[in-house]
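pasting tRNA-dihydrouridine(16/17) synthase [NAD(P)(+)] for the record, 533 residues
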Amino acid sequence: MEKKSGHDFWQTSLGGAKYVVAPMVAQSELPWRLLSRRHGAQLCYTPMYHSHLFCRDAAYRKVAMETNGEDKPLIFQFCANDPDVFLEAARHVEHICQGVDLNLGCPQGIARRGHYGAFLQDEWDLVFKIINHAHKNLSIPVTCKIRVLETLEKTVEYAKMLERAGAQIITVHGRTREMKGQLTGLADWNLIKAIKEAVNVPVFANGNIQSLVDVERCLEETGVDGVMSAEGNLHNPYLFEGKYPTVWEAADEYLELVKQFPCSMSTIRSHLFRLWHHTLEKHQHLRIPLSKARILEDMVAVSQEVKICCMEDVNEGDEEKHKDGKVQPYWLCQPYFRPSPEETLKKVEATAAKKRAMEEISEKGEDNTITDSSQPQMKYDLCPCGNPCSLRCSFKICKQCCKKKCKALPADCTGHNLLIKTRLERKRREAEEKAKIKVDLKNQIVVEDSSIQGKQTSGGIKKESESTKGVNHPKVPVDTLEHAKEISTIKEDILNGERTSFEESETLNRQNESDGTSFTKDEENTCDVESVR
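structre below
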C-alpha cells in the first residue's frame, strides 16, 4: 500500500488537526495527553525519547510506549544522529502511532553534548540521510520539528531540504537555537509564514501560544495548518477550549488520570508546580508539602489544601491584574509571561553591580562582615547537642537527634522525611495479614480432613466384589484418606514456602479428577482470562 503524502496524511490520519500538544520531555506523558485531548487538543506528540536508549533498554521502551484507544492520533518523537538507529526505534512504535517525528529543535546543553536536536541543523547531509532512510523504510510518515536559522533565506532552504528528504509535516518553532532560558524572547511568526509559503507539505507553528486567542491569531497571520502549544498547555491544559478552570479542578482531573495510568512522581510534581505557578506565589507555604510529597495520596492532599487556601480569597473577591489589563484571579489556570530579555539583562546588571559594591567594601575593610541589610538574617535555636535546630523538624531539634528520637519513640518527622512509625505500622499490618491467611488455610485443611475422616468412618470404602470384577469404574484413589492427607501436607508445604506452585497444581488436579470437578481445557482458558481481567 502506498504511503500517504503530507496533506493526505494530515487530513485522513490526523483528522486535519489544528490544535496540537507539543512533545515535551517528561511532560507530555499519557495522563497529560488524555487531559489535553478531553479539553480541545486534536493531536498529541509523545515526549522526546532518545532513539539509542529506546532500542537498547526494554524498561525505558515499555514506559514510553504506554498508550490507549483514547490517545489517538499520536506522533512519537525521537532524537537521533544515526539513520539506522532512528529507523530501528521507529519500527518499535509504527504499529501504535500515526507517525514518527525527528527532533531537530532541542537547544539545551544536553543536546549539544549528545549531538542531536538543534545542534544537527548545521549538518544538512546527516539530517537528510536520517529522514530519508526512515521515509523509505517505514510504513508510517516521518515528520520533523525545527527552529528557525539566522536568516530568512537559510531557514527557507533548510525547510525545502527537509521536504525533499521525505518529511510529511514540518513544525517550526519561531525562535533560534540561541533563544532559550533568560534570553528566550518572542518567536518570529514571519519566518514561519515564509516557510509555509515555500513548501508543499503541512506546516505547524510553535511559539508565543498562551491562549486560544493566540492560536486563532497565529492561524490567520501565518496561514499554517496547525498550531502547537508547549508551555501554554502546561499552565492551562484547557487552552484549546478557551477556558480557564480553577487550579484545583485541573489538578484533580489530572490526578484522577494518574490513578488510572501511573507515571513518575517527579513528572506529577512538575505538572502541579506549573499549574499552581501563580497560586504558589501567593501561598508559598504550600511549596514545601508539594516538594516533599512521595506518594500520590500526598499530592491529592496538597491539592485539597490549595483549594482551601484559594477558597478563602475567592469568598473575599481577591483578584489580580496582569499585563494585558484583564482581571484574572490567581486561582485560575493562566499563562506565565516570561520577563523580556531586556528586563532580565537589567536584573543581571543590578545584581552584578551590587556584588561589586560589596566586594569593594570588603577590600577597604570598612565592614568585616559582608551582609545585605535588605535581607533579614535568620536566627536558629540550638539543639541540646549544640547543633542548630531544623525549622521544619516536628520536635524542633537537629536531624541526628530527631532520627534517634523517632527510633526510640517510635515516631514520624515529616520535616526530616523520617517515617519510622509509619513503616513499623505498615510492617505490623502486613505481618497480621499474613498470620491471618495462614490461620485460615490451616483451618480449611482441618475441616477438609475432618470431612474425609467422617466419610471413611461412616461408610468406609467398599472393596470390589466378585460380581463386579472386570467392570469399568470411574478412576478413584486407592486410599482416599491417604490421598487427602497428601493434599493437606502439600498445602502446609506451600504455606511454608517449601513446595512450588507446579507441584501444587499437579496434585490438586488429581484431587479434582477424583472429585469429578476437574475443568475442561476451555474452562481453564476461561478462568485464566477472567483472572487476568
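Residues 409 and 421 are 8 Å apart (CA to CA).
The chain has a mean pLDDT of 82.
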